[in-house]
Design brief:
The protein is α/β, with parallel strands linked by helices and 254 residues long. The chain contains nine helices and four strands; from the N terminus they run H-E-H-E-H-E-H-E-H-H-H-H-H. The model has no long low-confidence stretch (mean pLDDT 97).
């Protein structure tokens, strides 16, 4: 089997992989929402797919198709937005998991690249424990697991967090330059909201992106660099792998 991607496999391929012990599936979650005038609406979907693929190579695991629409109501008012209610996204995750369990999946990793999916993930996790108690479900928090590593890489380049940014800043732009440079319009990149990021997050949640920035950027994408973007991605994959193995060890003791 030369790929872990479900969409590139036949059903006998999947059955053989499961029979051989590959019983973990990664379900990536993205979003379709504005990322400033310089990044595509599918930025989070692209990042989710990349991180899931890299993690799968380390485990091993199969990778489900990215769910490309998340909970993104904080970006209301920007053209191109597609968004789901938390209940809807949670139901999609649960439905997918039930079918996975039907063909032998024993462990599910739900990997999100969009912070707004948090409520849906909490709902899905609670329901999965009820309806599929035999399925081991791991839903990692991106910043809790990867934040320190990513911040360290930025600090080495002299970049503070308000430059990296919460949305469409240096961090995400660097990653897209690494993954799909043809989709990045650096000539359109400009600093957005670069104030205190903790306060910005509170405003984002309470009032939406428009309350912070007309362009939709929280951070400064002008400092983006493709090589640093690759380092960000590699560091996150390594952090997820380490956290997953620790979670497995702890789960086996309970």
């Amino acid at each position: 089997m030369n790929t872990q991607q479900l969409t590139e496999l036949t059903w006998p391929d999947v059955a053989q992989a499961v029979a051989a012990g590959v019983t973990t599936v990664i379900l990536p979650l993205g979003a379709t929402e504005q990322h400033g005038p310089h990044l595509p609406l599918g930025t989070d979907t692209c990042r989710a797919a990349a991180l899931a693929g890299r993690l799968a190579e380390r485990l091993p695991a199969l990778v489900a198709p990215v769910i490309p629409i998340g909970c993104s109501s904080e970006h209301r008012g920007f053209a191109g937005l597609l968004s789901l209610e938390a209940e809807t996204l949670a139901a999609v995750i649960v439905d997918c998991a039930q079918h996975m369990a039907g063909w032998g999946v024993q462990r599910l990793i739900v990997l999100t690249a969009h912070g707004g999916n948090g409520q849906a993930l909490a709902l899905a996790e609670a329901r999965l424990h009820q309806v599929l108690p035999a399925l081991a479900v791991w839903i990692p928090s991106p910043m809790a697991i990867c934040g320190e590593a990513v911040l360290t890489i930025a600090a080495e380049a002299g970049l503070p967090f308000n430059t990296m940014g919460l949305h469409a800043g240096e961090w995400e732009t660097s990653e897209l330059l690494s993954l799909h440079p043809e989709q990045v319009r650096m000539e359109q990149a400009a600093p957005g909201h670069t104030g205190d990021m903790d306060a910005a997050l509170a405003t984002l949640i309470a009032k939406g992106t428009r309350a912070l920035t007309a362009a939709g950027v929280i951070g400064d994408p002008c400092a983006a660099d493709a090589r640093r973007g690759e380092r960000y991605l590699a560091a996150q994959a390594a952090c997820y792998e380490a956290a997953w193995r620790q979670w497995l060890t702890q789960s086996s003791r309970t």
